[in-house]
């Protein structure tokens, strides 16, 4: 019996849905490896105009060590919606490289202002010494746009 590939060819509609999911996501599930084991946590998320998602983390958080090492990580974005089967709602699994942006980085000030503008409550703690920003440079993604709508996306597919 021949195996059928469920992945459809990526088209402009899939690219637009993936971008919309990233652009609108107030949070994401972040997956990292910690001590050789998977660790998943929820993070606040912001995607600036350059299309590379960003979060604000504390060095005290369990997942931050992996982020500081510039590890490969995964983000899951997409809300299950209020009705129906949660698995029928669109979601994006992003594979990315974590890029820490510390206070010494020339990008920090502008990126922190943009982050606070998008996530105003972060103003309360973005100035604490243990906090830093992390960019998630996309390496690829899997988009599940609903039943029978699966796509593989390249980094270029994800850029605005």
How does this structure look, described?
There is one protein chain. With about 160 residues, the protein is α+β, with helices and mostly antiparallel strands. The protein starts with 6 loop residues before the first strand and ends with a helix. It is globular. Strands 1, 2, 3, 4, 5, 6, 7 and 8 form an eight-stranded mixed β-sheet that branches. It is about 20% helix and about 35% strand. A hairpin with a 5-residue loop joins strand 7 and strand 8. The mean pLDDT is about 90. It has a single domain, classed as Pnp Oxidase, Chain A, CATH 2.30.110.10. It has four helices and eight strands, in the order E-H-E-E-E-H-E-E-H-E-E-H.
CATH architecture tag = Roll
Largest sheet: 8 strands, mixed
Quote the CATH topology. Pnp Oxidase, Chain A
> Approximately what portion of the residues adopt beta-strand conformation?
35-45%
Distance between the termini: 41 Å
Strand and helix order: EHEEEHEEHEEH
Q: What is the CATH homology-level superfamily?
A: Electron Transport, Fmn-binding Protein, Chain A
């Amino acid at each position: 019996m021949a195996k059928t590939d469920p992945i459809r060819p990526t088209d402009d509609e899939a690219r637009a849905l993936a971008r919309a999911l990233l652009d609108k996501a107030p949070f994401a599930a972040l997956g990292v490896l910690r001590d050789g084991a998977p660790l998943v946590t929820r993070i606040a998320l912001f995607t600036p105009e350059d299309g590379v998602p960003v979060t604000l983390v504390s060095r005290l958080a369990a997942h931050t060590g992996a982020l500081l090492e510039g590890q490969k990580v995964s983000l899951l974005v997409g809300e299950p919606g209020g009705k129906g089967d949660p698995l029928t709602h669109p979601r994006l699994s992003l594979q990315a490289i974590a890029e820490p942006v510390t206070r010494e980085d020339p990008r920090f000030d502008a990126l922190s202002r943009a982050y606070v503008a998008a996530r105003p409550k972060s103003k309360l703690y973005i100035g604490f010494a243990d906090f830093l920003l992390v960019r998630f440079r996309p390496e690829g993604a899997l988009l599940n746009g609903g039943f029978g709508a699966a796509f593989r996306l390249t980094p270029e597919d994800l850029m605005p």
